[in-house]
Design a protein that fits this description.
single chain; 258 residues; alpha/beta; TIM Barrel; 43% helix
Length: 258
């Protein structure tokens, strides 16, 4: 696996994980690519900005290339891969084109999401019971190529058991339900995620999270949810950057995780 000499947290594929001292921040740069594509040309330069994000403290870069390339392009993925010095996480539905791409560039982590081709943004976790055989085959193929695997999942405990049965290394909890109810009752909102995190640990699964996490709800989530290794945040972080600047915003999010 590339960048093996970095200070990045690495665990052998399939190994048990321990609770991290600090949850790592992976910045999703899709929205930077959306801005570039709206005008054409190469402003902003998403590759240059990804490298800046690393310098400013981001511990990973996430991209989610979609078939229509409406934000991140496959050429971006290829350009980023040899240059990043932190963790490279590629999200997406494991269709043939996506699988060809990730097996070509071999990122540190591939997060499999159940998005249909035309969806605006990820809006549900996998039904791992129904798709267990398919996911098992995909996970096995990725792990054969020394790529850490993660499944985008909801908080249903029985679904986590089916996810674990695929041989996946981690799950990424879909946190939109938490974000939607955070201001009503944050303890009730986070409770299903705490239960899911504990069950994931019992199953030997590493734990990531993402979707609608922001400066206001992130610290509480990270404090309450045990074993949280990594969060992937894009839209909210880029929105905050319009007010605070990109470098300062990365530092603000890192502060929330500490």
């Amino acid at each position: 696996m590339k960048n093996a000499g970095s200070v990045l947290l690495r665990t052998p594929l399939g190994s048990k994980v321990t609770h991290p001292k600090v949850t790592r921040l992976s910045v999703n740069i899709n929205k930077l690519a959306t801005l570039r594509n709206a005008r054409g040309g190469n402003d902003p330069d998403v590759v240059a900005l990804a490298l800046q994000l690393e310098r400013w403290g981001a511990q990973g870069i996430t991209v989610h290339p979609r078939p229509d390339e409406r934000h991140i392009r496959r050429s971006d993925v290829r350009a980023l891969s040899p240059l990043l010095t932190t963790e490279f996480n590629i999200e997406g539905y494991p269709g043939a084109e996506f699988m060809d791409l990730v097996l070509e560039v071999r990122p540190h982590q591939v997060t499999l999401v159940p998005d249909p081709p035309g969806v605006l943004t990820s809006n549900a976790g996998w039904d791992a019971r129904t798709h267990r055989l398919f996911l098992s085959e995909v996970v096995h193929r990725l792990k054969e190529n020394a790529i850490r695997t993660s499944l985008f999942m909801g908080t249903e405990l029985d679904q986590l058991e089916h996810a674990a049965a695929t041989g996946v290394d981690r799950i990424e909890l879909y946190t939109e339900p938490y974000a939607a109810h955070y201001h009503e009752d944050r303890y009730a909102a986070v409770a299903p995620f705490v239960r899911a995190a504990r069950h994931a640990a019992e199953l030997g699964l590493g734990l990531n999270a993402g979707h609608d996490l922001n400066r206001h709800n992130l610290a509480f989530f990270a404090q309450q949810v045990p074993g949280l290794l990594e969060v992937s945040i894009g839209h909210a972080l880029i929105c905050d950057a319009l007010l605070f600047g990109l470098e300062n915003t990365v530092r603000l999010y890192l502060r929330e995780l500490r």
